[in-house]
Specification:
heterodimer, A: 211 residues, 2 domains, elongated, B: 107 residues, alpha+beta, Arc Repressor Mutant, subunit A, 3-stranded antiparallel β-sheet, 60% helix
Chain lengths: 211, 107
């Protein structure tokens, strides 16, 4: 009997990888099956069995079974596209560092310093923005209501950033950067609109009991 | 539809089963070729329940262990029937095209 207790503890350690809601619903039941399938006197979890359980846990966390409305799936895809567009913007900023500075210096020496500060800010901020896009894609996909509000807040900040860029005469000196920023802004607008459609609103409502 | 999913639905087609029952049924249906593991089974069941193909049909405690029974929903029955018909049609087409070659022997 103590052999079975040891095996049960080992299984529970692996089952801890599963989402909390799934464990609350199914942990005892899945243990029944695991112990029924175990060999006589077995005290340790086999490698194949452990791999199968962990793979299941990862799959459940990445692709929750709750049926995602099409609008939310599209919003998640757009947010991933947003992260990709930010990366493209970062590459544009880095590639055009010298040419933008030269263009500004030739026309307006007073603005040169401000533009340089802005470029440094971009290089620091864009990687953070990429991270935020990915995080929001993940959390919105899970139907977290706070992620929806945070998405709106981030879209507000993004709007301010684009307006700020326009006030720095980026259209004249860094058209590629402005186009990238505008693309990101349109993606943000579309994804925020999608997560507030009626179908999406039903998905975000907190689900207390899975079925 | 993945084979494991198809076999789980098939195992439930003629009545309710508990988790371990599904595993043994699937092994039997597939002539021992498919041995479902618990992680695979419960990831699939989680999804099938969310999609409304399978529903819980009662629980009981046997020797201090929780057992939960599952059954196909009407929607699950429809989906399984459609998938079985599709596979059957594909298999029939393959056999029809193979038959001349098999009957004719060496080409």
């Amino acid at each position: 009997m103590s052999e079975q207790a040891a095996l049960e503890r080992a299984y529970r350690r692996i089952l801890a990888w599963y989402p909390r809601s799934f464990r609350a619903d199914s942990e005892d039941e899945i243990l029944t099956v695991l112990l029924a399938a175990a060999a006589q006197g077995q005290t340790r979890v086999g490698l194949a069995e452990a791999w199968d359980l962990i793979r299941g846990a990862v799959r459940m966390r990445l692709w929750p079974a709750a049926p995602r409305p099409r609008t939310v799936r599209a919003a998640v895809r757009l947010m991933l596209a947003g992260a990709a567009a930010e990366l493209a913007a970062l590459i544009t900023v880095i590639a055009s560092l010298g040419s933008v500075r030269a263009a500004v210096a030739a026309h307006d020496t007073a603005a040169a310093h401000a533009v340089m500060v802005h470029q440094i800010f971009d290089m620091a901020a864009i990687p953070v923005a990429v991270g935020i896009w990915l995080w929001l894609a993940w959390a919105n996909g899970k139907g977290e209501d706070w992620a929806r509000l945070l998405s709106v807040a981030c879209f507000g900040l993004l709007t301010l950033a684009v307006l700020g860029m326009m006030s720095l005469h980026a259209a004249t000196y860094a058209p590629a950067g402005l186009i990238a920023a505008a693309t990101v802004w349109v993606i943000g607008l579309a994804s925020v609109a999608l997560i507030f459609t009626p179908a999406a609103c039903r998905y975000y409502r907190p689900q207390l009991t899975p079925q | 539809m993945q084979e494991a999913t198809f076999l789980i639905l098939t195992a439930l087609a003629d009545g309710t089963q508990h988790g371990y029952g599904i595993i043994t049924e699937v092994a039997q249906i597939s002539d021992g070729r498919v041995r479902l593991r618990a992680g695979t089974l419960y990831t699939a069941l989680d999804r099938l329940r969310a999609d409304g193909l399978v529903a819980v049909d009662g629980e009981e405690v046997v020797e201090g262990r929780l057992r939960r029974y599952y059954r196909l929903t009407p929607h699950g029955t429809e989906v399984l029937a459609a998938e079985a018909a599709r596979l059957h049609a594909n298999a029939a087409a393959a056999l029809t095209r193979l038959r001349p070659g098999l009957a004719g022997g060496v080409a």
